[in-house]
Amino acid sequence: MDFGNESVLVTGAAGFIGSHVSIRLLGLGAKVVGIDNFDPYYARELKDHNLKMVDEAGGDFVFKQMDICDTQSLESLMKAEGVTGVVHLAAKAGVRPSIEDPVGYSLHNVVGTQSVLTAASSAGCKRVSAASSSSVYGNNEKAPFSEEDSVEHPISPYAATKRSCELIGETHYQLTRLPVAMLRFFTVFGPGQRPDLAIRLFLNKIGRGDTITMFGDGSMSRDFTYIDDIVAGVLASYEKIDEHGYRIWNLGSDHPMELHKLISTVAEVVGKEAIIDQQPMQPGDVNRTWADLARSKSELGYGATTSIRDGIAKQWEWMQSNVELIHKAGG
Ligand SMILES: NC(=O)c1ccc[n+]([C@@H]2O[C@H](COP(=O)([O-])OP(=O)(O)OC[C@H]3O[C@@H](n4cnc5c(N)ncnc54)[C@H](O)[C@@H]3O)[C@@H](O)[C@H]2O)c1
C-alpha cells in the first residue's frame, strides 16, 4: 500500500499507542487526522507531550479535540479531511478502574466504537483497524491464546466492552462490507507507556527507591509487547484487512514473563534493588496472558522483534530524558 495516498483518522491520537501510530503513519507519507477527547484518566501533560511529538515528526498532521461518541462531528470531519481509513484506538483503557465505572466504559468503548464505524461508513471510508485486547481471553486455561479460542467469559467490564467491540465490528462488516480489523493487543510498553501500567510504575518507583506493590504471589504472567512491534502490526492490519473483510488478530510477543521476573528485570535495568509490598490479587486481573501468533505471523507477516529487557531499557532511557514531564504529571 502507498500510504502517501492515505488520509488516516487516528482516534485516541493523544494517547500512548495513538501517538506512536500517528508518527509512523506520517513517516510513511500519510496524512493523519488525529482526534482525542483528553479523557482525564491520566495527566493531560502527558497527552500534550505525545501530541507535541507527533507534531514535531513533521508531515501533514491535523488535530481536533473531539469525542468519538459524537457521530455527526466525526462524519463531517472525515468528509472535510478526505479520510480514507481509520485506526481506532480511543477508549477508556485500564482493567481495574472499569469495575468502578462500568457505565462510562460501556459508553466510550462500545457506543464509541459503533459511532466510529457508523461515521466511517457514512463518510465512505475504505477500512478500519481497531484496538481490542488480550483481556477478552479472561482466565482461559488453554495457552497460548488463539483467535479461535472461546472468549465467552471476560472477567472485567473493560474486557467485556472490548469483546462487545469485536462483535459490533463483525456485525457492521456483515451489514456494510466496510472491512474491519480487530487487534488483540497484549500489554504494550515502551517510551510513553501509560502511567498506570506495571513497567512504568515499577521503573518510576524503583528508580526513586520507593516500595512497589506486587499484586499476587508474583506468578501472574503477561505477554509484554514493545510499542514498535504493535505499531508494525497495526499498519500491517490496515494494509491487509481488505483481503479478509472482518478479522481478529493477536498482537503480542509470545514470550510471557512472570511478575517476579519482570520486577527483577526492571530492577536490573535501573540498577537498584526492588522493595516489594505484596498484596492480594486484584479483582478483574487475569492470571496470565500469552499470545498465539500463528495467524498474525502468516497473514500479517507480524513478529515481535524487541525483547522485553531491551524494551525496558529503552523505556527507562525515555523516562530519564523526561524526568520533569513525568514529575509534573505525578509519576
Ligand atoms: N496499552 C496497552 O497495553 C493496551 C492493551 C490492550 C488494548 N489496548 C487498547 O489500545 C488502545 C490504546 O491504548 P493506550 O494504552 O494508548 O491508551 P491511552 O489511554 O493512552 O489512549 C487512549 C486515548 O483515547 C482517548 N479517549 C478515550 N475516550 C475517548 C472518547 N470518547 N473520544 C475521544 N478520545 C477518547 C483518551 O483521551 C486517550 O488519549 C485502547 O483502545 C486500549 O483499550 C491497550
Please, could you describe this protein's structure?
It is a single chain. This protein is an alpha/beta fold and 331 residues long. The protein is 44% helix and 17% strand. The protein has a single domain, classed as NAD(P)-binding Rossmann-like Domain (Rossmann fold). It has helices at 16-27, 44-56, 71-80, 96-100, 102-122, 157-176, 198-208, 227-240, 259-270, 294-300, 308-320, 323-328; strands at 7-11, 31-36, 61-65, 85-88, 127-133, 180-185, 188-189, 211-215, 221-222, 225-226, 246-251, 257-258, 275-279. The strands form four sheets. Strands 3-2-1-4-5-6-11 form a seven-stranded parallel β-sheet, with helices on both faces. The protein has a two-stranded parallel sheet with strand order 7-10. A two-stranded parallel ribbon has the order 8-13. Strand 2 (31-36), helix 2 and strand 3 (61-65) form a beta-alpha-beta unit. The chain is globular, with a radius of gyration of 19 Å. 48% of the residues are buried. The model has no long low-confidence stretch (mean pLDDT 97). Nicotinamide-adenine-dinucleotide is lined by residues 11-12, 14-18, 35-39, 41, 47, 67-69, 89-93, 108, 112, 131, 133, 185, 187-188, 194.
